[in-house]
């Protein structure tokens, strides 16, 4: 694949970098060929294997003359694709400083870092931003979205983009206009959660049990695999805003894993309302 790395130089915003790369690629009709793209941009080797102790690694030098990417497929090939895109982000985002003498070494947690505080965190957040914009650009993603939010969309997206369900749901929360949040749980306990900008503060922490008055608690306790329809729920189960209308939908998967999508029906000006300066509790704080 012939790609022009010079054309991508000096772009420090991950969204712009991914958009420029897509402009070089032209229309993509299959899942984004991330390995071929990496090889076309001076990555001499992409090794996908079951590794211990890290999710992804980029072996390179400070000036990035070339690189080797290692991606862990222990959690599936779709996650490995995201990891390759993340490492390619570190490679192309020239301001990213190597984390060791041999390059970058990234953990599963790094793969969903969204904070922008310290440099190390910001680099991980930017690599993730680049990865999702590369693998699920708006033009390829949005056309799979139904009129209303629906976890079923993640099934189609997963196949079309060859991306993990988790990454598709995160992207859905981000791309849709409705105030949405998603909570991943295992054996009835919260693993982590994310919320869109307009969704109220989520009063949940990692390892908290799913709220007993939620629909999610009921379906997870029953343990039948599948996707529920959206049903009205008590906003007080999930937030400190008992007065708002809220709906939830849950997908129960294998091994006690579940994901719940929340949809808040906010009164007209509510998105302008100050939520009292409560601390930000996005995905990362839950680990
Ligand atoms: Zn990283």
Describe this structure in words.
The chain is α+β, with helices and mostly antiparallel strands and 287 residues long. It folds into 2 domains: 6-135, Arc Repressor Mutant, subunit A (Orthogonal Bundle), CATH 1.10.10.2910; 179-286, 2-Layer Sandwich (Beta-Lactamase). It has 9 helices and 10 strands. It has helices at residues 14-25, 34-39, 77-92, 119-135, 138-141, 152-161, 165-175, 215-222, 235-238; strands at residues 43-49, 56-60, 67-72, 103-106, 180-186, 189-195, 226-227, 231-234, 245-252, 257-265. The strands form 2 sheets. Strands 5, 6, 7, 8, 9 and 10 form a 6-stranded antiparallel beta sheet that branches. Helix 6 (152-161) packs across helix 7. The two termini are 38 Å apart. The relative contact order is 0.11. The model is unreliable at 282-287 (pLDDT under 50). The site of zinc ion has 7 residues, from helix 3, strand 4 and helix 4.
């Amino acid at each position: 694949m012939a790609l022009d790395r010079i054309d991508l130089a000096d772009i420090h915003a991950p969204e712009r970098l991914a958009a420029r790369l897509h402009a070089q690629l032209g229309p993509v009709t299959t899942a984004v060929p991330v390995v071929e793209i990496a090889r076309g941009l001076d990555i001499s080797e992409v090794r996908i294997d079951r590794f211990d102790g890290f999710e992804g690694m980029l072996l390179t030098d400070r000036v990035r003359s070339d690189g080797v990417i290692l991606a862990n497929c222990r959690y599936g090939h779709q996650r490995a694709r995201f990891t390759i895109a993340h490492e390619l982000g570190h490679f192309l985002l020239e301001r990213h400083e190597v984390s060791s003498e041999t390059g970058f070494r990234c953990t599963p947690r790094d793969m969903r870092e969204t904070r922008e505080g310290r440099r190390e965190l910001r680099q991980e957040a930017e690599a993730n931003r680049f990865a999702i914009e590369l693998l699920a650009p708006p033009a390829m993603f949005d056309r799979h979205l139904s009129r209303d939010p629906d976890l079923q969309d993640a099934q189609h997206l997963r196949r079309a983009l060859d991306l993990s369900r988790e990454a598709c749901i995160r992207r859905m929360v981000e791309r849709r206009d409705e105030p949405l949040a998603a909570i991943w749980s295992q054996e009835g306990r919260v693993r982590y959660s994310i919320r869109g900008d307009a969704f109220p503060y989520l009063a949940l922490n990692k390892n908290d049990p799913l709220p007993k008055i939620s629909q999610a608690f009921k379906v997870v306790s029953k343990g039948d695999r599948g996707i529920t329809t959206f049903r009205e729920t008590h906003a007080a189960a999930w937030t400190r805003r008992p007065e708002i209308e809220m709906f939830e939908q849950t997908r129960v998967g294998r091994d006690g894993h579940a994901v719940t999508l929340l949809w808040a029906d906010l009164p007209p000006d509510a998105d302008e309302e100050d939520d009292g300066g409560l601390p930000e509790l996005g995905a990362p704080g839950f680990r």
